[in-house]
């Protein structure tokens, strides 16, 4: 479903290479976790695939979603695919919705526009998708500020599902959330994968989140992919020093967390 080949991103004016020679393939229903330090190029890889690079940057190589190379796709084609084929979940759920309108009004408007549904059918679809995300129908009457960040993230996921996204690109979807909301959002992603076989790319610096979902891992450092492979292999036998560091820190964090909870045995 997704195939990136030798993708590089340059600063158009200076020619400076920011992301260098990244490639991966992702089959339908699988999940890729992209991890790495801040500024390592994780977001730019996603933006290349979404056809959404900032104007100052230019991509080379190939970034296929199905048979469409998003690097060369016409802006209208890329926009259409972002509306339906590819869903995006961003770090700040509040910014995804208009604070002046209820979630229901925004769902209905989007479904009428993108799916050509009547008002009633759009409402019914909204309620159905919210229920799939374990959210009550009353959310339709709520304004964004009345919901927690985790609930808003789940609303975003509900929206992308209703638009029949085949691929969901989630960039740090849990970073801005507290622990309980983080867990609920990750659980929703997990259920999506199991029940609906949605293909997922999750970007995170939280190895725990990635470990819960990903089949494959891509480790980025300084704009380069330093390690890639099956999640189990990367976690259990990391080859690159930077990946070892990430895994060690993750283990230390988990142990600290369990000690804080008064738990006995630590495991990652
Ligand atoms: N519009 C832009 N113009 C110039 N450089 C940019 C632009 N956008 C991003 N960059 C640079 O590209 C590099 C990679 O950025 P990117 O946002 O992909 O990192 P990231 O790994 O997603 O980081 P984070 O985890 O902090 O989101 C950074 O050094 C950043 O400064």
TrEMBL record:
Keyword match Aminoacyl-tRNA synthetase: no
Topology relative to the membrane: Peripheral membrane protein
Gene3D superfamilies assigned: P-loop containing nucleotide triphosphate hydrolases
CDD domains: ABC_NikE_OppD_transporters (cd03257)
Coarse class of the protein's main subcellular location: membrane
SUPFAM superfamilies the record matches: P-loop containing nucleoside triphosphate hydrolases
InterPro entries for this protein: AAA+_ATPase, ABC_Ni/Peptide_Import, ABC_transporter-like_ATP-bd, P-loop_NTPase
UniProt entry keywords in alphabetical sequence: ATP-binding, Cell inner membrane, Cell membrane, Membrane, Nucleotide-binding, Translocase, Transport
Record-linked Pfam families: ABC_tran (PF00005)
A GO cellular component entry from the record: plasma membrane
A GO term for molecular function: ATP hydrolysis activity
Domain ABC transporter as annotated: residue spans: 2-247
Compartment annotation: Cell inner membrane
Family: Belongs to the ABC transporter superfamily.
Protein name, UniProt field: ABC transporter domain-containing protein
């Amino acid at each position: 479903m997704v195939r990136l080949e030798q993708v590089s991103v340059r600063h158009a004016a200076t020619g400076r290479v920011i992301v260098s020679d990244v490639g991966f393939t992702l089959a339908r229903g699988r999940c890729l976790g992209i991890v790495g330090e801040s500024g390592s190029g994780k977001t730019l890889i996603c933006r290349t695939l979404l056809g959404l690079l900032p104007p100052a940057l230019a991509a080379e190589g190939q970034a296929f979603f199905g048979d469409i190379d998003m690097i060369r796709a016409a802006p209208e084609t890329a926009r259409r695919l972002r509306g339906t084929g590819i869903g995006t979940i961003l770090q700040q759920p509040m910014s995804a919705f208009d604070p002046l309108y209820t979630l229901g009004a925004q769902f209905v408007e989007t479904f009428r526009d993108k799916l050509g549904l009547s008002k009633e059918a759009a409402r019914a679809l909204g309620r159905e998708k919210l229920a799939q995300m374990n959210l009550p129908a009353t959310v339709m009457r709520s304004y964004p500020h009345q919901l927690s960040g985790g609930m808003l993230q789940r609303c975003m996921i509900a929206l992308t599902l209703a638009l029949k996204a085949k691929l969901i690109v989630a960039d740090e979807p849990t970073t801005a959330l507290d622990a309980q909301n983080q867990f609920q959002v990750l659980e929703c992603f997990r259920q999506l994968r199991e029940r609906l076989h949605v293909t997922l790319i999750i970007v995170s610096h939280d190895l725990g989140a990635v470990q819960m979902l990903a089949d494959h891992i891509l480790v980025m450092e300084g704009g380069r992919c330093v390690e890639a492979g099956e999640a189990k292999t990367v976690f259990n036998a990391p080859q690159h020093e930077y990946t070892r560091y990430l895994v060690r820190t993750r283990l230390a964090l988990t142990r600290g967390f369990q000690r804080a909870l008064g738990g006995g045995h630590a495991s990652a």
